[in-house]
Specification:
Length: about 260
Amino acid sequence: MYRKEDLLRDIAAMHLDPQGTLLIHSSCKAAGEVEGGAETILDAWSESMKDGLLIFPTHTWAAIGEENPVFDAVSSPSCVGILPELFRKRPGVVRSLHPTHSVAALGRDAVSYTAGEETRTTPCPREGCWGRLYDRDATILFLGCTLQRNTFIHSVEEWLDIPDRLTDGYQQLVSVAPDGRRFHIPMRRHYCSVSNDVSRNFGKLEAPFRKLGVISYARFGDALCIYGKARRMADVASALLQMNPQLFSDGEPVPTRWYA
């Protein structure tokens, strides 16, 4: 069974910037048996990033839509795992007001980082929280999960205006702030006519990312972690999408000659 001290050592071995910005996609169970469970995992990451900004996605796209249009930043549960769900409820954590693709942030400038999401009309716009990962050259870490979880690549596709990625129409959604203010938001949704979920094909980026030194690997408890800088991820993904804008419409590997 792992203790917090063990997890802190694993984090230290990754040589992350403790004053930087870190976003974590996660599978809690992949970490194995931890004394204190999920809360200890969050304690370890919060302590390690106490001088920086720690972010977890707290998406609600699975529940918020035409039939259930109201997102409440306080009460709407996340659909992406136990760690984000527990993290968003912690003291000092600030949750953004995006109705389908919110994030929760703790630490330096969490308020300014999450601000303005109630004005966005697409899931991952360049000027929003996901675009700010690029501006800060944040680290994105996949704790026990694969690059299929890489929401940031949805953002890259949006910036490049890849066709057949967003609905033409808008859903009329509502975002409720912790102070009770209500924001009415016309929101486009992720869409692809030839694939139910293009993110299941984001894993094809692992080979070029690995070859080009974009990502590194480490252990956190029992979990295999993949991590790398957002800016390099975006730049490589953008170059590949310029070669084939429909790169993620299928699961075929990226041709080696495109990046070798």
